[in-house]
Amino acid sequence: MAFIGIALLIAIGLSVIIVSDAGTLAGITQDQVGQIVPLLLILIVVAAGAFSRRIRFSEMVSSVIMWVAIFGVTITGYTYRYELGDFSSRIIGELMPGKAEVNSKNGIATFRKGFANTFTVGAKVNGAKVVMTFDTGASAVVLTGRDAMAAGIDTRRLRYSVPVQTANGMGRAANIVLQRIEVGGIVRHNIRAFVAEPGALDASLLGMSFLQTLSAYTVTRETLELRN
């Protein structure tokens, strides 16, 4: 087993060279040495197993291939860790649409982007649960007729006299005032809003009449952050 100890010392020595920024070793750069060391450690482990008990050559080759594959998967996962993180965030956004990560101490609510490249926001309007789309292009909060009725608004008495631009083209909406709206633990009262006429809107919008009451809101590639 002495050769295993010698091999370990060699691996440690190579690692020290990498850390100490020694430049090159026998014409091999630090990056190349960094790639060799993990493979050398794998070979040491396999060799230790081979000499501790008698195994067939084919079994030893299979072990080497397995460890190299594990090493490759690990390096690939680390290399693409940010992309994998974005992908997992989008899965969470799709499985739990509108779900906020709330930091009540700092008054921050964070939402994840879904695969449709939109931020879905879970809200409570007059106590009713409403799923909205974050939209800075909307001058105010806009509710669909169904969401307005869920929030206790009598849509039959509304006058749809305000022209609005929607994803479905030009439409009309009615002016209202929301008594209470809560998004990610952030509560506002008496917020100006619209109710879109039937068929004009597919989903309610979280617009500027709410967003402008916040101290800040930040949009990154995959997250929406609202600050009380």
Automatic annotation (TrEMBL):
The record ties this protein, via Pfam families, to: gag-asp_proteas (PF13975)
Keywords noted in UniProt: Membrane, Transmembrane, Transmembrane helix
Membrane as a keyword of this entry, yes or no, is yes
Q: Which InterPro entries match?
A: Clan_AA_Asp_peptidase_C, Peptidase_aspartic_dom_sf, Retropepsin-like_bacterial
For the keyword Transmembrane, the answer is yes
Segments passing through the bilayer: 36-52, 64-80
User: Per its record, how is this protein called by name?
Assistant: CblY, a non-orthologous displasment for Alpha-ribazole-5'-phosphate phosphatase
